[in-house]
Amino acid sequence: MSDQCPVGAATAMTERPGSGKTGKRRLPKFAQSLLQAKLALFGLFVLSSFAFMAIAAPILAPHDPQLIILKNRLRPPVWTEEGIPGHLLGTDSLGRDILSRVMYGARISMLVALSAVGISGTVGVVLGTIAGYYRGAADDVLMRFADIQLAFPSIVLYIAVMALVGSGLKNIILVLGFSGWVTYGRVVRGQVMSCREQEFVLAARAVGVRDVRIMARHIFPNTVAPLLIIATTAIAGVIISEASLSFLGLGVPPDVASWGSMLAEGREYIRSAWWLAMFPGLAIMLTVLGINTFGDWLRDYLDPRLKSR
After folding, report:
1. Which of 23, 45, 203, 264 has the maximal Cβ count within 10 Å?
2. Is the pLDDT of residue 48 over 60?
3. What whole-number distance in Å separates Cα of residue 86 and Cα of residue 286?
4. Is 3.30.1330.30 the CATH number for 39-302?
5. Taking the mean position of all CA atoms in its chain, how far away is CA 76?
């Protein structure tokens, strides 16, 4: 059992003189392992590129994503015969620049993903820690509620709630955030249950340390590694969920540039204007692929049972 809670069991060791050398060797090992994983490097590069594009969209975007120029509507990418200069990826049915809308769509996807994952992680950690530490009625109620939520397909649950509360950026963040806590809660609950009877927890309890401090200082550090893995992969799922809801008209407002709403518009012109759906779809695919490849490597690196670390 002791190998299940390495952080808490080694708390005293990390406070001894000279322990800082181990911490200093950690980063080079992480970087060396990352440099040896080509797919992980590719994933990190793609993810970093889209993150930079989202942050710098107001500077990098060649046009206002909402600027309507009807005389330039449905122009193909610039490298085709009918393409026009200044619109690298072409224009949509209202003459808006596709490249600019893809860049601003990255802002929406990243904002929704990071915010929703932050909410899900926080709620899951709190509820999972309470359920695993106190057990009893709290554990039964929370886990039965989690079972009920898992009984519904995620996309059906999202559609039902969004249809009830209405579309909008704030609502979609809250819905995706509060509905995604179950995975975090279950993982944290299992980690807490495996650590709560360890010697370092019993010793802290015996000297009168409060439960909140025990959970925060001695138990929570053991959940960081699995939580990082879950959060990394969950970002990809949230991006797809946001795009799906926006595609159905239940996400962000239609006037806001979003990859999902761009796909919905491109569906109507799939034969005559293929670029409307091609580039936002490609952006979603590359972003999710980058997150998944980097997340797979991160899981292998943080799991001590895997030899690939």
Report:
1. 264
2. yes
3. 24
4. no
5. 33
